[in-house]
Write a structure and sequence with these properties.
The chain has 184 residues and is an alpha/beta fold. It contains 3 helices and 9 strands, in the order βββαββββαββα. The chain has a single domain, classed as Gamma-glutamyl cyclotransferase-like (Hypothetical upf0131 protein ytfp, Roll).
Length: 184
């Protein structure tokens, strides 16, 4: 199997959730992040959709031997060929971005809420890679915050959950409060 480049825009930005060694901050133009539910999974997840927008993320080289694990992780998503611009230069790189296909997507809701531990993992990654300004851009460039959020920190529902520092938890909580999210 050959290596491939992917553009991660959610939990893949948190390097602690995968073992890809070659990752670089990048921007993807022409897409926006959105919370969706897919009938292929029980809870809401981040996806992307074409839009007049741009999002931050990581370009990661996925070794061929790791493709089966990546495909399993992204089984509810379809890959799309994209070009991302690396942050440390004006270099553009070809990559794949994974999006829940419209035929499987629906808005999240009470039965399929957003999980706080998933949000925590994503924000932790954005904070590490892009700093607090990147976290602000993450919240601003993501649609679907009107869905309910379930506080699962005491009993994490997200398989890749990570412990947060008090500072990280405070940043997540402050942004969710500013968005006036509805708690499930």
């Amino acid at each position: 199997m050959t290596d491939r480049q992917i553009f991660g825009y959610g939990s893949l930005v948190n390097r602690a959730t995968h073992g890809y060694q070659d990752t670089r901050p990048a921007t993807l133009h022409g897409w926006r992040r959105v919370w969706v539910h897919t009938r292929l999974r029980p809870l809401a997840y981040l996806s992307v959709e074409p839009a007049d927008a741009q999002i931050d993320g990581l370009v990661a080289r996925v070794p061929g031997a790791d493709r089966p694990a990546l495909d399993a992780r992204e089984e509810a998503y379809d890959p799309h060929d994209v070009t991302a611009r690396l942050h440390d230069s004006s270099t553009e790189v070809a990559a794949e971005v994974f999006a829940v296909p419209a035929r499987h997507a629906s808005p999240p809701g009470v039965i399929h809420p957003l999980r706080l531990t998933y949000i925590d993992v994503v924000v932790q990654g954005f904070l590490e890679v892009f700093g607090e300004a990147g976290v602000e851009r993450f919240f601003a460039s993501t649609a679907g915050w009107n869905a309910p959020v379930i506080d699962d920190r005491a009993a994490p529902l997200y398989a890749r959950h990570r412990p947060l520092t008090d500072r990280q938890r405070g940043i997540v909580d402050a942004h969710l409060a500013a968005l006036q999210v509805h708690w499930a």
